[in-house]
Amino acid sequence: MDSMALLLASTLSAGTVLAIASLGLLINEKSGIVNLGAEGMMLCAAIAGFATVIHTGNTWLGFAAGMAAGACLAAIFGVLVIWLGTNQYATGLALTLFGAGFSAFAGIRYVQEKLPEQTLYPIPVLADLQFIGPALFRQHPMVYIAMALTAGLVWFLYRTRAGLVLRSVGESPESAHALGYPVRRIRLAAVVAGGALCGLAGAYVSLVYTPLWVEGMIAGKGWIALALTTFATWRPARVLLGAYLFGGVTMLQFHLQGLGVNVPTQLLSMLPYLATIVVLVLISRNPLWIRVNMPTSIGKPFHPGA
Amino acid sequence: MKLEMRPQPSSFWAYASPVLALLVTVAIGIGLFMALGKDPVKGLQVFFWEPIKSPYALGELLVKATPLLIIALGLAVCFRSNVWNIGAEGQFVIGALAAGGVALLADKTTGPWIVPAILAAGVGGGMAWAGITALLRDRFNANEILVSLMLVYVADLILNFMVFGPWKDPAGYNFPQTRTFDAVTQIPRLMPGSRVTIGIVLALAGVGALWLYLYRTYAGFAQEVSGVAPAASRYAGFSSRRALWVALLVSGGAAGLAGALEVAGPIGQLTPYVPAGYGFAAIIVAFVGRLHPVGVVFSAILMSMFYIGGELAQSRLGLPKSITGVFQGLLLFNLLACDTLIAYRFRLFESKPLSPSSQGAR
Q1: What ipTM does this complex have?
Q2: 0.90 surpassed by pTM
Q3: Distance of alpha carbon B319 from alpha carbon B36, whole angstroms
């Protein structure tokens, strides 16, 4: 029973990383831009957040630094892609390769460092409930923030005028441009917002999820978050559910090891990556389903007046 | 300042843009060295002079350039066909694993036929691994970027599993590595005193083969049209499925070959450190080389300089080796930005049309 509660709790934590990053990428993609640089932004944000907490001791400043790092990198990506019209895939890849290199370079001094003890934030009353308490209500606040973010994004995208404009830019930048909306600035805003959320997720990894710095510690979570937007057919609520599902798969390996299941660790560690492939295959099998939900202009450049 | 589309793409900037990108990267590098309190002249020296100053150094430069060149040649075919295989690193690892498996079969009595067998196993391994991506893309429309990338992590874990488990050297003091391969499996070296193997000859043959394929064969033409203009390609009756499979199998096979040359060449055994990031760096090599067979030769050498320079920067200047990755990423960034100059030009002032009629003509 206790291990079950622990599994649930760690699933929520692991899912939070993917959820925050993937929601950010969802905003990106709703505007018609794919940012393959998620992994690189998360890595840079992870070290930025970690270094900030080491120097200041303030976790919230660390999160802010992570968001700033993600937003800055995303802004560079955005200007290149949106104004200079560079290929989105190639530029995103450049961002990931640069981020991997830069974070390793900047982080070398912090490899042995340890963070100050994390304070837990149990929710009063609820946290004392049996089973449910330890499973759900003794989490880092970021776990609840991710849930609130999902709800906020649903409201923003489908209940506000700004959300409608964002979606229309992603569906048909030409029409949005003809209506007088500043398509490129809206896209840049979406890309920067996406980068900030990826940064937040990256900082969560190095500050809460595994509170230390190791080169390449994001270990593909940025890529899984990218796959999640497709898996969720670009719906925020499904992103959250998908993120918890993948969080569960990630955590399952550790709990199976704990239970003494006799499978080599390396094979268990493959689970999240294999699950991503399986899920992609299942979702992509029906091209119509993808096409109905996918923002129409995704991945395509837009030149106003051309 | 305004960005204005050129009437036609500039052929000057097509060649000049990689050079400009390199210059910008060097300029940022100088700034970085100064910010870190290192002598920028020494910094430039370890990256651009040390790797070419002696015959031995030149040999080491070629040792690192060989895998980069081979993988990038395959990726050039792939990217030209608009297939985004970014999992060459995984195909490299599986190629190395397959080649290592064959090399472990060798003993004192094995003949020199084992070398071609090792290379064939490498190519086969890389092809099979890329084939998974092709199959899932072809059959289920699964995004090849994400699948090929996920398979990199899986490949790394398979390698780890083998060297920590079934293939671990029983006499290796419990280190996670296979036994050292028999001498007969060593890829023949070109000359004594240098680690350069016949791999560089294969790579250069690949340059010629790719040039012929792209510019002198019908199949190469069809392959490229499928990437540049899918609609035209369909209209002409070229099979896009075929293009997908060719792109992935060629790039996978090339990456696998590079893996085989690496483990049976400079490394000589399987360890968890076989994946050295060549598969990712080769993406940059391919783009910086303009996806052109001759262009990638230059960019592979340049990227090899970055690798060697990074190692020297660590030992001579006390900088972390990962500075290589910073420069590699910067170079690709700068290249993409500079490439804007091929199709566009910057105007300081808005260009005014001369007369209403010329505006109408636009």
Answers
A1: 0.91
A2: yes
A3: 9
